Amino acid sequence: MNGRKAPRRMRYSIESRLRVVRLIEEGVAPSVAAAAAGASRASAYRWWRRFQQAGWEALADRPPVPRRQQLSTRSHGESFLAVLRHRFADVGVYFMDEPEAAFSFRSCLALVALLDQMRSEGSQVIVATHWPLIASLPGAALIEVGEWGLRRVERYDDLDLVESWRTFMAQPDAYLRHLLAG
Questions:
Q1: Domain residue limits at 27
Q2: pTM of the entire structure?
């Protein structure tokens, strides 16, 4: 990258954060409120969400987070989540192909929370998955691919993969006896 470091996330004063939240509270669109303070739309949504969850105190300065924790000190899933959080910091359209491959059950839950956060900040995420946990995000538009082609599915419970997993979890021996010797 021509020898230059990537820019660090801008630190805004408490006054700027308060101004953005006050404007949003008065009915100004978050993108307009953010522009008034020279901040990104994602920052405005993050500050608004913090304010909604914990009030004005949540907008106070926070101690700086270490710029980077060694990825080698984390599990593969934790490292992957850290990379995703960094790469998906801006509002946009993102595509993910089977992100669950790197994750444990708990890391998948963290991914669902990240997807929800991205959505609340205005991003769109298209995810190809075989994991019911990822497909369980409330309010997600579900499109199932199968021998029938593509079809919109209204309810999570109607997904073929959800039914398959439920059947397996209820009676794993019914599947395993056909697959395992002896």
A1: 14-59
A2: 0.57
